[in-house]
Design a protein that fits this description.
single chain; alpha/beta; Rossmann fold; Helicase, Ruva Protein, domain 3; 2 domains; two-stranded parallel sheet; 13 strands; 43% helix; 16% strand
């Protein structure tokens, strides 16, 4: 890139990051995380893409697949604040966002003061989010979407960058509260954590049962992450690529005119406009990570599964036949052509 990105007032920004530096920085972050997380390259890549997009990620996988360790490692690699919230049925919204306390002011008079909750951090781990009640889960909605928290009619701004990574266990569903569609839609990506291969299990055993402890370096700061997020939004996208992303999202709606048969048969509700936003923004970041300064069809296709799997609400027939949302999205990718 020869010219700096243009600011909001039409003037070139004083400081900017080159696409090459963006790629190098992201590779260093991924390399540091890989010192702790064995394999799971897709998990690491999609988590980093979500972070650089300024979004939030939902990780789903059985226990022991390093979901919590991934977030802790990201917090170790990036020099910014980190907090962990263990969701339980008795957790209350005030335990997350904070509450008003009575204290003394400078003159010794009684006064209310706001005590921030653990949501006031740059990286927030919401562990086992489906174990809390819907009332508590909804406390995350404003923070995730608006990056603000409202307590006692006062709006408190969260510090940027702000990244929520929530985990949920798909096996132990008894006594849990599945996330409603409105809250699922606020997650930029839903990332399925795969079980390790035999070779990866051997490597995990070798790394974690010996005396060696990997030394993780802080290779990025909050300010650097914000610079990378700004650069990602300057990547150009051709109109026909945007149109392809729009057709993919439209194809998730069963009432559409040109809807694929797999959607008509198995989908009850399709993706919202946030779906196409996630496809395009993730495509921009994937293009930069591949050393390109333009978004290709392959970038949109690579982002389709994590961006759309949680935004497609399946019907009873799909549940009865054991059809997953991944299968539906893959069927849509096979049906929708790159050119109309």
């Amino acid at each position: 890139m020869t010219n700096p990105p243009i600011g909001a007032q039409g003037q070139p920004e004083a400081e900017y990051m080159s696409p090459d530096e963006f790629r190098q920085r992201a590779q260093v972050i991924e390399a540091e995380v890989s010192q702790v997380i064995v394999g799971q390259r897709e998990l690491i890549r999609q988590s980093v893409v979500t972070l650089l997009a300024g979004g939030n990620a939902l990780l789903e996988g059985v226990p022991g697949l390093a979901k919590t360790t991934l977030v802790r490692t990201l917090a170790d690699v990036i020099d910014c604040s980190f907090s962990r919230i263990q969701f339980t049925p008795d957790l209350m919204p005030a335990d997350i966002v904070g509450t008003m306390l009575i204290g003394e002011d400078a003159q010794g008079r009684k006064a209310f003061r706001f005590e921030p909750g653990p949501i006031f951090a740059n990286l927030v781990l919401a562990d086992e989010i489906n174990r809390a009640t819907p009332k508590t889960q909804s406390a995350l909605l404003e923070a995730m979407q608006e990056h603000t928290v409202t307590v006692a009619k006062t709006i408190h701004q969260l510090t940027m960058p702000f990244f929520v990574l929530a985990t949920q266990n798909p096996l132990e569903m008894e006594g849990t509260y599945p996330l409603p569609e409105a809250q699922l839609d606020r997650f930029f990506f839903k990332i399925n954590v795969a079980f390790p291969t035999t070779a990866e299990l051997i490597e995990i055993a070798n790394r974690t049962t010996g005396a060696y402890v990997p030394q993780i370096r802080k290779v990025a700061s909050g300010e650097l992450i914000k610079e990378m997020q700004m650069l990602a939004r300057t990547v150009p996208v051709a109109s026909h690529v945007v149109a392809f992303a729009a057709r993919l999202v439209a194809a998730t709606h069963p009432e559409g005119k040109d809807t694929p048969e797999v959607t008509r048969q198995y989908v009850r509700y399709g993706a919202s406009p946030r779906g196409v936003q996630a496809l395009i923004l993730a495509g921009k970041i994937l293009a930069l990570l591949d050393g390109r300064y333009n978004v290709a069809f392959t970038d949109v296709k690579a982002a389709a599964l994590p961006a759309l799997r949680h935004r497609c609400v399946l019907n009873f027939e799909a549940q009865a036949e054991g059809v997953s949302s991944d299968e539906v999205v893959k069927g849509i990718l096979e049906t929708v052509k790159q050119e109309p």
